[in-house]
Write a structure and sequence with these properties.
alpha+beta; four-stranded antiparallel β-sheet; disordered N terminus
Length: 694
């Protein structure tokens, strides 16, 4: 219900909004707000859990049982789900009383250093896995001390052990260090999330048994209680993972993804191209052969031979989600696309693309977003002064449609009616669109180039007409800044993501969202449609990437591994792979079908704001705040992948250290961070950014 948008209250519940403010008509949810104070009110937020498959609450309607029973169910979902091994599940009534069981505050340091000593002295093969416990235990023990008002003990505990944590948790620890009183915890969203969403650790059975034995021998109930209540230990059979394998996957706000999260079937194939008759001359027959794909993107080389009208076996059914019908103008555009495709440069290590850089000079208004039309005829900039500026980058100027009085004089039957309705008096290279009341953080052209989307700090997404250069609709649904928006490759649908931690799916003719994708623990910073439009990828400041199913709103993939907020996403043209970039300066590559990380590209030294695959998918281009564009060999990166069942089941990924072999070129600007990349239909690479003098 929360995902299908039964109103904001349902969305707030799925989000983990503050307990007191959730108003809803469902008695089951209201019951959650009624947890007695002191019984771990923050933990009442396991409201997120009962909706999830496999949760003990999933089978029962929360609204149908008495209040006491509902609270027990919720507590059970929280603590019983904590450990996978069945015989360790405590009975539910014990769980509720355990909420306020706390050990002697003076012994917390002893408990933690005892466990630390045990882990550091254990065998190498177990040490790496068990070391994952340090961070979540450190945070929960500190929070427990603060929550129970042992402020001096909490301070001493923090000072003694915070230096031992992994460097990628430094930002979280900075937030944590400011929480020194119980009152501070109430309004702090990050910590509320930490207390209420389970931190996931993936550990082999041998390492888990070793830990369990140690804690039981030492009678160390304090740590065992935290493990039971706040951690989700995902146990797998087989060899323990190495430090390198674990480091590749950890770093997100809530640990790793549960393996179950990446098991759902994903239709990552491309939809069959609609067939329509086009009068082709000799030159175009070649183009028909090289026919363009939905987002005018091409599959990789290995698919080029099989361009018959066969359905891709991994593609979703053609009518799985309703897509708009092709208009005549769309068909003409596809024909143009095919002609361009016939003249496309085949890229590779021996044939790198030329790069054309559009530098925004004197952009004192502050450039915050860029997009380029698919046919590379227009470029748009979103600015911090709340304006949206559209330029023509071809000799053809931008013109508006004539006024109604002038239109009545035009012969509607004439062949060049589309040319005649344009008003030459309005022709100019630049159009400025006013309407937002805050910085514009995202822009996106529609595939047919008739519309433009922009999203802003003012909480709205606006749809602009590129015929009249006026605002047609303001979509209101986000209550906070909207960081990104993007049109579907087929038009009609678009997605937005913002500071309220959810992504929303919209259709241009509905003023309310069709889907609300709730699950991220921090801002949704970037959004991307899959080339077949059935899925949406979102990147977040919680350092995870999620893939959502447009049909039912379910989250079908959770990818962890980045050590900072995600700022760029790009699907490969064949729909099989996803590339992601973040503030950690790494590009990670993911196999969508198997739900696995398959590559890591190191080289950038700052946030990666732009990623784009070439039209046939042979080259991946990345643009960064370090003022460089880098080109990577995508074909080589994705060949010979280890995606057997064992790897999928345990996450034993072996990433080759081959960034240098895959890097085909690095191109520096004088002093311009790269904020957008775009491959033209002939594979010329366009890049854009604003010159910064410092």
């Amino acid at each position: 219900e929360a995902l299908l948008g039964r109103g904001t209250s349902a969305a707030a519940v799925a989000l983990g909004g503050s307990v007191a403010t959730v108003a809803t008509s469902s008695p089951g949810v209201a019951a959650v707000a009624a947890v007695p104070p002191g019984k771990g009110e923050a933990r009442g937020d396991c409201r997120r859990e009962p909706w999830e498959a496999g949760s003990p609450c999933a089978a029962r309607s929360l609204g149908s049982s008495p209040l006491s029973e509902q609270l027990l169910l919720l507590a059970g979902a929280f603590a019983v789900g904590g450990v996978v091994v069945v015989e360790d599940q405590p009975d539910v009534s014990a769980v509720l009383s355990a909420y306020n069981q706390q050990g002697d505050p003076t012994l917390y340091e002893e408990y933690y250093s005892g466990l630390k000593h045990f882990i550091e002295c254990s065998l190498d093969c177990h040490r790496a896995e068990l070391s994952q416990l340090f961070y979540p235990l450190f945070v929960h023990m500190y929070l427990e001390l603060v929550y129970n008002q042992h402020e001096s003990e909490a301070k001493s505990f923090f000072e003694r052990f915070h230096g031992d944590q992994e460097c990628y948790y430094q930002d979280d620890l900075r937030v944590l260090s400011s929480l020194t009183k119980k009152e501070h915890m109430k309004g702090n969203e990050t910590m509320l999330d930490f207390r209420t969403s389970k931190f996931v650790l993936r550990i082999s059975r041998d390492s888990y048994q070793l830990l369990k034995r140690h804690l039981q021998e030492k009678q160390n109930n304090q740590i065992w209680n935290i493990v039971q209540e706040h951690l989700y230990i995902d146990i797998f059979d087989g060899m323990p993972r190495s430090k390198q394998q674990i480091d590749a996957m950890v770093g997100s706000l809530a640990g790793e993804a549960k393996r179950e999260a990446n098991k759902a079937k994903v239709f990552f194939g491309l939809l069959k191209e609609p067939e329509f008759d086009v009068p082709l001359d000799d030159e175009d027959e070649e183009g028909e052969n090289e026919e363009g794909k939905p987002k005018k993107k091409k599959p990789k080389k290995d698919n080029v031979g099989s361009k018959s009208k066969k359905q891709d076996p991994n593609a979703p059914p053609q009518n799985r989600i309703p897509l708009p019908e092709l208009k005549d103008s769309d068909k003409l555009d596809k024909v143009m696309n095919m002609k361009e495709a016939a003249r496309r440069v085949r890229l590779g290590p021996e044939c790198l693309p030329s790069i054309c850089f559009y530098t925004f000079l004197n952009a004192y208004q502050g450039l915050t977003a860029v997009d380029i039309t698919d046919d590379s005829s227009m470029i748009v900039g979103g600015f911090a002064d709340s304006t949206v500026r559209v330029w023509s980058v071809t000799p053809k100027k931008l013109r508006s449609v004539k006024t109604a009085a002038d239109l009545s004089l035009i012969d509607k039957e004439s062949d060049d009616v589309l040319e005649r309705i344009m008003d030459e008096k309005t022709a100019s290279e630049l159009k400025i669109l006013y309407g937002h009341s805050g910085p514009v953080y995202g822009t996106s052209f529609s595939p047919d180039r008739n519309y433009l989307l922009s999203c802003s700090e003012d909480g709205t997404v606006r749809l602009w007409s590129l015929q009249t250069f006026t605002c047609l609709v303001g979509y209101k649904g986000h209550n906070y800044p909207v960081w990104d928006t993007q049109f579907s490759p087929y038009g009609y649908y678009f997605v937005s993501g913002g500071h309220d931690r959810v992504a929303r799916l919209w259709a241009t003719d509905h003023y309310q969202p069709l889907r609300i994708f709730a699950g991220h623990l921090a801002d949704v910073t970037c959004t991307r449609f899959h080339p077949n439009s059935n899925y949406i990828a979102t990147g977040s400041a919680d350092r995870t990437i999620r893939l959502w199913d447009v049909l039912n709103g379910n989250c079908v993939r959770i990818f962890t591994g980045h050590k900072g907020p995600i700022h760029s996403l790009a699907f490969s043209p064949n729909g099989r792979f996803l590339a992601t970039g973040a503030t950690d300066g790494r590009v990670l590559l993911w196999d969508i079908g198997h739900g696995l990380m398959v590559g890591e590209l190191k080289g950038h030294t700052d946030t990666i704001y732009a990623l784009r695959f070439s039209r046939d998918g042979e080259i991946l281009a990345s643009g960064s705040m370090d003022n460089t564009v880098r080109l990577w060999d995508a074909v080589k990166a994705f060949e010979d992948l280890e995606t057997d069942d064992f790897t999928t089941a345990t996450g034993h990924i072996n990433l080759p250290e081959n960034s240098q072999d895959l890097l085909l070129g690095t191109y520096m600007t004088k002093s311009t961070p790269v904020v957008h990349l775009h491959f033209t239909r002939r594979n010329l690479l366009l890049a854009a950014g604003a010159y910064s003098s410092q």
